[in-house]
Design goal:
The structure is a homodimer of 297-residue chains.
Chain A: E1 3-9, E2 13-19, E3 29-32, H1 36-53, E4 56-63, H2 92-100, E5 104-108, H3 109-120, E6 129-134, E7 138-144, E8 147-148, H4 182-186, H5 188-195, H6 208-228, E9 233-236, H7 245-257, H8 264-267, H9 270-273, E10 274-275, H10 283-295
Parallel strand pairs in A: 1-4, 4-5, 6-9, 9-10
Antiparallel strand pairs in A: 1-2, 2-3, 6-7, 7-8
């Protein structure tokens, strides 16, 4: 059976895996994100190794941005203006295509995860949904009318400017661009800096941190609901591994919407509207496999 | 030449007009929004009158919500849970279909306006854009991948929860649902109540009201950019008739985005990214004509 190779290309590490589909994945192999020369050489080594064992029919990559996901653009497949200098203008798709001759699927890491959840996870059969990752950064992917949302380039949902009650939370945020965006106030690094811990997950369940975190994520879920009218919102990423966090977000999202949105999807099934990824931590890499699959047309 | 009839059904008044397309409209005729019995009787009178002069091939209606725009739903074409009791569960499409036997196009007032701008106005040729109306309320319609965004029901973009600097603006908002949503802070009634005037447009150009208004609309434009990555944002509605307001919003949107979105559509052409409707105050009624056109399939 032919295999696909998935690449989840993050700013600190790449995860690669292979399989016949997103539900039957090999062990993950991790490669540090250093320079394109070093990192991509290891990616090619991995591909060659898998090709010795399996017929590989396509490669899919969910990649940190900003990037150009528009196949009609001259810069399609490039990482564009990232602060990681070595990766600026790196032609991710061109490099892999030239080195392997295989079809390459390519999109943002969060759109890949959304696609993975659509194909095999918590968004199966849903034409309209949002996938949010809450981890080192916060980002979102969305499907609208059954197609991934790209628009002019791609969304930056984590940088949504948020209401912040300075009396309750005087924290200045960790985003160098916006003092009050969701990523700045609610990402893993925001929790680490605000509460002086080395990992958000070190904060005990009864710490006020989780009440505040769920306030922000619920307000964000309300705003995604107002702006995109999704049929489901999936919250993934490392911070969501805190037990009980999703259960806190659900009722607070209803409070933030405050009765304004009347569709039954939201009002009658909040625990089915705001959910964890069906694929757990595999959403991103399975999504890369889905991108590979999609590249075969 | 056959004509279409457009109905812009608002909460205080209906505007009806007819024409062969959205660029060649008859004079508008205004009907007060009272009860379905009264208001729709006058709509039918208007339709009969036009049918004596023209062959009418279809009717389009852009309607105040919440409503059900999903053709596959049993409640398609109904106004649903509006606070206007007389209109709750009114079958708008069914009523017109039964009375006229004509094809009926139907969507939200803001999606209609978005469609009108796409067909004949400032969004021609754009697959992805947002139309925001700033008037008695604030609402938004969006197109993604060339199709109107509906999602689970329809968006409520005006109810996005906003950052509010209480030191600068301690106003409690006018939205009965959310003390800090965009509509509550920046609609016409919000300006009237905050500044004690009978119309926002009575406020002189050098009044601080316009600086604050453009702050909120720019923050909203930044958030729509982050969430939807549109190729253009059109601001229409009565409040936007204030001269100079759009020019204030443009640079402030760039400030709110703070360099984070790198696509040239935003960074190199902000005055072409944030614009007034190409159809001016006719966006809504022309959009209703576009819905009529679309109902012919």
């Amino acid at each position: 059976m032919s295999h696909f190779i998935g690449i989840e290309a993050g700013g600190t590490k790449f995860v690669v895996a292979h399989g016949p589909d997103g539900l039957h994945l090999s062990d993950r192999h991790v490669i540090a994100t250093t320079t394109p020369d070093e990192t991509m050489a290891q990616v090619l080594d991995y591909i060659s190794q898998i090709q010795r064992e399996h017929t590989v029919s396509a490669i899919g990559a969910g990649v940190f941005g900003p990037l150009d996901p528009d196949p009609s653009s001259p810069h399609y497949g490039h990482i564009t203006t990232t602060p990681k200098k070595a990766w600026q203008q790196f032609n991710f798709v061109g490099f892999l295509q030239e080195a392997t001759g295989l079809p390459i699927g390519f999109d943002t890491d969060v759109n890949a995860a959304a696609l993975g959840e659509h194909r095999w996870g918590a968004a199966q059969g849903l034409s309209d949904f949002v996938y949010i990752t809450v981890g080192t950064g916060i980002g979102g992917g969305a499907m609208v009318n059954g197609k991934l949302l790209h628009g002019a380039m791609h969304t930056e949902m984590g940088h949504m400017l948020m209401p912040q009650d300075l009396a309750k939370d005087p924290f200045e945020g960790v985003c160098p661009f916006h003092h009050n965006c969701l990523e700045g106030l609610a990402s893993g690094p925001a929790m680490m800096k605000r509460w002086h811990v080395e990992s958000a997950l070190d904060l005990p369940a009864d710490h006020v941190a989780w009440a505040l975190e769920s306030d922000y994520l619920a307000a964000a879920a309300a705003n995604y609901t107002f702006c995109l009218s999704p049929k489901r919102i999936i919250f993934g990423g490392g911070v969501m591994n805190h037990p009980g966090l999703i259960e806190k977000i659900c009722p607070k999202t209803l409070q933030a919407i405050a009765g304004y949105v009347k569709n039954a999807t939201v009002t009658e099934g909040i625990n089915d509207y705001i959910v964890l990824p069906g694929l757990g931590d595999n959403a991103g890499i399975a999504g890369a496999i889905a991108l590979a699959e999609g590249s075969l047309g």
